[in-house]
């Protein structure tokens, strides 16, 4: 799996979306990594220096939660250990549990360059993160300030907009009257969060709303606190929505914050980081937000300020980790000014320098990037990259530097403290394509393998990760981080539901691997799934893919058993018959199509074509065609069959290898000759010497006729052991084709003998015909079936069909049934009637044919 710098080869690079060290392999990982492994194995075999860069993510919030939970079971807290002690414990946790998922990825068959494995908090990545932070700070693109952020009261940290998940929740809409300061009726606002009223600093109406124009510039009285607040006019308000009046709480709502900035409003914060009402909440201080809400609603009702209450269902922001309801709060945090960073990132996709596959996902990307807000990157955690900002305890000076300063630049004091916060996990993973290759150092790996070739990821992290990597690529490296972004969907259960703990419908891929094998799981995830679309997981599909693996194994065993110790001549030195030329032509077609599909990231089409070629053309047809020659006395023909079988098997295994690495590697090791590893072999190329199009067309005629004969025999219930004389009537142009393939017709169409002629002369009038485009095969009816016995059997089936028809008609003619039975029951009876009528028609047709 090692990728070396080789100037004689083209590089092909994929960086793994680093799984969290808290993670366990799930179906999303299985799909994502299977896709990457297919591409990297394909490119490796094509002769590229193919690097799949592996690594894991420290996952600040998730990992800290795990460690805090473990400490709680010991009766300890973070503070009991102190920062240094906690970090020591975190690194121990990472060493003990953090590498589990790497072993699971290896079990899936992921052929990463494991010697290069990286971790988002290793020394090199940390150096890159600090360098980028300082660089962006010095450019004015990172700043510290008081802004509205998303706060998780449970994790007790800020999270970014992209980390907020919205879910529909049932609540209430409280309509509250704010009386005018002069004693007038004032106006009514509607809110889902009455507790935030304590932080209201204005009520906003639309500038063109004539209902409230007389109040703009005047004050209304904030209920309970009984303090005057202004009525302002702002276009943010939708005058047709609700009452057309919006309470403005700048410290507790992102939209209100923007209004507050525009109107220079005060921004009092009435809630603590833990979701508890603070001293500004007056008599409600110390209450949880929910208890405060209940108490305030009761008081509003008692004082007559509560006008009405309505049931309401709306989207509520929750933490993507713990699913606690998010509290928007104004807080002093570190931010990235993303609008400038977004400009070159938007242009890169718009110009086609970076392409999404499927292309439709660029709309999702543009929608996010063109409306991007500044990114809150500070997290109130201990596990993570600590922000390289230092404060002077004597003069308050802020110093941002790559190395910890020893003295204050302003006053010379040595009393300095580092910022307590750490960086958002996505800040470090945003540099993953180049930090893993050695940046900020100018390493040979960075020069050779960057920009990377393709990023494979799910559509759910386009905002989290893809957009940030593109922004950092252009800001730090001055060029794109990758050329293509291959987007896949998510794996759902059989009912189409998202897999989740709450539904208890998750499927453990490790258990699937134990039962069916990694190859079967991998193949099932690639076949029948188009890029960008969700897929449903069916265990029956995995079982089918295991059957396919068994088919390949048994076919390979057959080939090897028939080769034995016999010499296998190169394909160029044997005499090929029409079947040989057909399979070599079809192999050429498969190679071209599978290669083209993989180049276009059409993994589903590629896997389906490999499946069809192996199962149908190679196993079901060519191996059967080869058997007469393998078992015959003519050594020249035996050599030809062996050579073609081995050649086709070898190239077929190579086509299949990216999808099913284990079984193909195992089989390849048994093939004659010192071939080495299949993963390091050259990808097959179509051989121009095998363009036997006319032979392939001719063989197609024969196969079509064989299929037609088999279908006729199946309809007549003729067992394969019963052989018949067969006469093929064709045109003079096709006569030679059928004469040259008579032995194949005999074996595969269960014929005792095959005659080929250009007219129906001499053919019995009662002969059964099997029709194809190139010719018709005639078989004496008496040789196919015992007519008297078959007529008796058909008579019995006819009686059963008539009885079912009569039973269905009697029900449908009965008004009591059609008037009372459920519609589905009636529809089922009608469907049964149609089936039996069609069966009766076929039975009578067959009986008529036998009675001639």
Helix coverage percent of residues? 40-55%
For the residues shown, what is the average pLDDT? Answer: 92
Q: What's the alpha carbon Rg, rounded to whole Å?
A: 37 Å
The biggest sheet, with number of strands, parallel, antiparallel or mixed sense and barrel status, is:
4 strands, antiparallel
Query: Strand order within the widest sheet?
Result: 6-5-14-16
Strand content: 15-25%
| Number of beta-strand segments | 29
Shape: globular
Class by SSE composition? alpha/beta
Low-pLDDT windows of residues: none
Helical stretch count? 27
Strands, helices and their partners?
Layout: E1 11-15, H1 27-45, E2 49-53, E3 55-56, H2 60-73, H3 78-97, H4 100-108, E4 118-119, H5 123-138, E5 142-152, E6 157-159, E7 164-178, E8 187-191, E9 202-205, E10 219-222, E11 227-233, E12 245-248, H6 254-263, H7 289-303, E13 306-319, E14 327-336, H8 338-350, E15 355-357, H9 361-369, E16 375-376, E17 378-379, E18 389-392, E19 398-400, E20 416-418, E21 422-423, H10 425-429, H11 432-435, H12 444-449, E22 452-458, H13 462-477, E23 482-488, E24 491-492, H14 509-516, H15 518-526, E25 535-536, H16 539-563, H17 578-599, H18 603-630, H19 635-656, H20 661-668, H21 693-715, E26 724-730, H22 732-740, H23 742-748, E27 751-757, E28 768-771, E29 775-779, H24 781-784, H25 787-812, H26 815-820, H27 823-850
Helix pairs in contact: 1-15, 2-3, 8-9, 8-13, 14-15, 15-16, 16-18, 16-19, 17-18, 17-19, 17-21, 18-19, 19-20, 25-27
């Amino acid at each position: 799996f090692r990728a070396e710098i080789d100037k004689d080869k083209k590089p092909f690079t994929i960086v793994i979306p680093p799984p969290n060290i808290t993670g366990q392999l799930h179906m999303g990982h299985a799909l994502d990594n299977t896709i990457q492994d297919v591409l990297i194995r394909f490119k490796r075999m094509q002769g590229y220096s193919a690097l799949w860069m592996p690594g894991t993510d420290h996952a600040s919030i998730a990992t800290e939660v795990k460690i805090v939970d473990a400490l709680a079971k010991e009766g300890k807290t973070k503070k009991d250990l102190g920062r240094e002690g906690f970090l020591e414990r975190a690194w121990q946790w990472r060493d003990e549990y953090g590498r589990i998922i790497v072993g699971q990825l290896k079990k899936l068959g992921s052929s990463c360059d494991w010697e290069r494995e990286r971790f988002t908090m290793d020394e090199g990545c940390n150096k890159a993160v600090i360098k980028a932070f300082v660089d962006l700070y010095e450019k004015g693109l990172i700043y510290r300030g008081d802004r509205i952020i998303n706060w998780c009261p449970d994790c007790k940290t800020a999270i970014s907009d992209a980390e907020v998940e919205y879910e529909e929740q049932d609540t209430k809409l409280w309509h509250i009257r704010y009386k005018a300061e002069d004693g007038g009726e004032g106006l009514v606002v509607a809110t889902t969060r009455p507790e935030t009223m304590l932080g209201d600093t204005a009520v906003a109406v639309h500038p063109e709303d004539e209902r409230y124009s007389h109040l703009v510039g005047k004050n209304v009285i904030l209920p309970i606190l009984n303090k005057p607040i202004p009525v302002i006019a702002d276009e943010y308000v939708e005058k047709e929505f609700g009452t057309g009046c919006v309470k403005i709480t700048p410290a507790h709502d992102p939209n209100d914050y923007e209004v507050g900035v525009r109107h220079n409003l005060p921004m009092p914060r009435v809630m603590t980081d833990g979701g508890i009402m603070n001293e500004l909440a007056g008599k409600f201080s110390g209450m949880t937000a929910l208890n405060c809400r209940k108490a305030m609603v009761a008081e509003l009702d008692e004082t007559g300020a509560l006008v009405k209450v309505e049931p309401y269902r709306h989207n509520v922001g929750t933490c993507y980790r713990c699913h606690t309801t998010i509290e928007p709060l104004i807080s002093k945090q570190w931010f990235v000014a993303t609008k400038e960073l977004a400009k070159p990132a938007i242009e890169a996709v718009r110009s086609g320098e970076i392409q999404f596959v499927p292309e439709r996902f660029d709309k999702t990307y543009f929608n996010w990037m063109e409306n991007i807000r500044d990114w809150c990157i500070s997290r109130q955690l201990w596990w993570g990259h600590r922000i390289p900002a230092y404060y002077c305890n004597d003069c308050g000076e802020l110093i941002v530097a790559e190395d910890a300063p020893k003295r204050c630049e302003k006053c010379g004091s040595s009393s300095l403290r580092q910022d307590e916060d750490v960086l958002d996990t996505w800040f470090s993973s945003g540099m993953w394509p180049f930090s893993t290759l050695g940046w900020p150092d100018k390493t040979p790996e960075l020069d050779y393998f960057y920009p990377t070739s393709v990023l494979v990821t799910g559509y759910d992290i386009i905002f989290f990760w893809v957009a940030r990597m593109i922004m950092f690529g252009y800001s730090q490296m001055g060029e794109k981080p990758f050329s293509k972004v291959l987007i896949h969907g998510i794996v759902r259960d059989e009912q189409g539901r998202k897999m989740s703990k709450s539904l208890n419908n998750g499927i453990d891929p490790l258990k699937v691997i134990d039962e069916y094998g990694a190859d079967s799981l991998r193949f099932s995830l690639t076949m029948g799934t188009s890029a960008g679309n969700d897929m449903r997981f069916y265990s029956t599909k995995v079982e089918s893919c295991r059957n396919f693996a068994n088919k390949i194994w048994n076919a390979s065993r057959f080939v090897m058993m028939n080769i034995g110790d016999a010499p296998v001549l190169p394909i160029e030195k044997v005499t090929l018959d029409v079947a040989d030329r057909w399979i070599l032509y079809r192999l050429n077609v498969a190679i071209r199509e599978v290669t083209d599909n993989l180049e276009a990231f059409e993994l589903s089409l590629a896997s389906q074509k490999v499946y069809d070629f192996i199962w149908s053309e190679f196993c079901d047809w060519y191996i059967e065609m080869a058997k007469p020659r393998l078992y015959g006395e003519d050594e020249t023909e035996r050599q030809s069959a062996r050579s073609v079988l081995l050649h086709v098997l070898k190239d077929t295994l190579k086509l299949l290898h990216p999808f099913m690495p284990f079984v193909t590697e195992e089989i390849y090791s048994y093939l004659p000759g010192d071939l080495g590893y299949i993963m390091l072999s050259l990808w097959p190329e179509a051989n121009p010497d095998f363009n036997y199009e006319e032979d392939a067309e001719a063989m197609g005629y024969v196969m079509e006729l064989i299929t037609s004969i088999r279908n006729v025999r199946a309809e007549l219930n003729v067992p394969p052991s019963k052989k018949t004389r067969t006469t093929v009537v064709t045109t003079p142009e096709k006569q030679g084709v059928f004469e040259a393939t008579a032995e194949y017709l005999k074996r595969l169409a269960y014929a005792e003998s095959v005659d080929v002629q250009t007219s129906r002369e001499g053919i019995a009038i009662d002969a059964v015909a099997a029709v194809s485009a190139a010719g018709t095969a005639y078989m004496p009816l008496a040789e196919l079936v015992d007519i008297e016995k078959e007529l008796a059997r058909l008579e019995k089936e006819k009686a059963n069909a008539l009885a079912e028809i009569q039973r269905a008609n009697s029900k449908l003619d009965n008004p009591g049934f059609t008037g009372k039975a459920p519609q589905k029951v009636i529809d089922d009876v009608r469907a049964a009637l149609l089936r039996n009528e069609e069966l009766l028609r076929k039975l009578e047709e067959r009986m008529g044919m036998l009675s001639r």
